[in-house]
Amino acid sequence: MTAFHFGDRQRRLFGFYEPAREDFTKVQAALLCHPMGNEQVFAYRTMRQLATRLVRAGFHVLRFDYFGTGDSYGDTGEGSFEGWCGDIETAIEELKDISGATKVDMIGLRLGANLSAQVAQQNPDEIDRLILWEPLAAGALARAARECSTDQVNVGPEMLRSDIAEYLARSSISGKAALLPPRTLLLLTEQPPSPVEFGSLAAEYIADTPAWIEERLTTGSIPAEALQRIVGWLQ
């Protein structure tokens, strides 16, 4: 595993790259797009375990911190939806350059799923397969933003800046589902009490512990069945 910074001088990003354990005829590369804030902290072990499993399955894997988060450059308040989408595009090019892949697979969790969907819609020639793992629903975001009287919106266990929540609500996955890659998996680990608003995308439900919710003092649980399904779907 190699830890390094990449991107241009004004927007340096921090990432971990792991090459495939075995040589396969086809070069496969997977980009992991994290959630944000506390959800990223709680899901850290899960995303690392997912990377390990993908590497063993023959994938070159890159996981990284968005600008203004983690060990990447920038302050927390400098983050934006458009900027983070640009960070994913930078990570795609970096992963292709390191691995030699012509396209990449993307797995996005929570807010990372919404960002991944937006990037996939705008860069169809760069993405082979896409997994949207528990993305934030536009309807819930819109309602939360309308009812919020501060600059922070409560989205489940996480808080989002109201401007980002509003942008997410406008850039809904459901409204542009037809523009996503033909091979797209929408994965939910808990079946919601009401229909999920993701347009023509059919959700696959796997009963498992959410990786992004704190269960112990500092970490969330690893949803083994969900990880097995993700790796199996990509093979």
TrEMBL record:
GO molecular function annotation: hydrolase activity
Keyword Hydrolase: yes
SUPFAM superfamilies given in the database record: alpha/beta-Hydrolases
Listed InterPro entries: AB_hydrolase_fold, Hydrolase_4
Domain (Serine aminopeptidase S33): residue spans on this chain: 46-140
Alphabetical UniProt keywords: Hydrolase
Domain of life where this protein originates: Bacteria
Protein's UniProt name: Alpha/beta fold hydrolase
Organism, scientific name: Bradyrhizobium symbiodeficiens
